[in-house]
Recover the amino acids of this structure.
């Protein structure tokens, strides 16, 4: 390659660097962020307050699921439960995924699906059985039902949708 070609390449690179530098200078002059008086997220150990900590707000009381179960539709529940397919399986004999297989889960003891390792939060409920009321609590807010559970699902706020999913789970036998 001739020296003239090298000069063109070097000039192109230098021009690109100058354009980038000038763009950065202009951008910092145009956009001037407002500085915060204090950090939005403090770094370091939390300050200890001399006053006792306020109690956490109580979880809202769930409506009884019975009246909603009277109008529950398992077909609608199956449609709603499609979001669960990322982590769960529903048919007999299917393997566990991130979450356990949910076939015939109704009236079974909690946290007993073979071949699945449950969190300590759910193992604490092992003496209980999945019934419509327990599933209602679980589907409304899994973290509230079993604080520390591995399940990251935020819950279904709509009572009728929960009843539909429970009806679908009841139909899996």
């Amino acid at each position: 390659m001739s020296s003239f070609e090298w000069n063109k390449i070097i000039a192109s690179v230098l021009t690109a660097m100058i354009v980038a530098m000038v763009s950065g200078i202009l951008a910092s002059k145009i956009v001037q962020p407002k500085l915060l008086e204090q950090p939005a997220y403090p770094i370091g150990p939390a300050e200890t307050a001399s006053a006792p900590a306020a109690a956490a707000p109580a979880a809202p009381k769930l409506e009884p699921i019975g009246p909603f179960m009277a109008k529950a539709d398992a077909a609608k529940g199956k449609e709603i439960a499609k979001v669960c397919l990322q982590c769960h399986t529903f048919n007999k004999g299917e393997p566990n995924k991130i979450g356990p297989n949910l076939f015939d889960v109704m009236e079974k003891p909690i946290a007993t699906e073979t071949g699945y390792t449950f969190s300590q939060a759910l193992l604490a409920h092992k003496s209980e059985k999945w019934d419509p009321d327990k599933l209602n609590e679980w589907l409304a807010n899994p973290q509230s039902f079993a604080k520390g559970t591995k399940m990251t699902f935020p819950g279904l706020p709509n009572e009728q949708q929960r009843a539909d999913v429970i009806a679908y789970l009841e139909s899996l036998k």
DSSP finds seven helices and no strands in the chain. The radius of gyration is 28 Å. The chain has a mean pLDDT of 87. Residues 66-171 form a domain with the Cytochrome Bc1 Complex; Chain D, domain 2 fold (CATH 1.10.760.10).
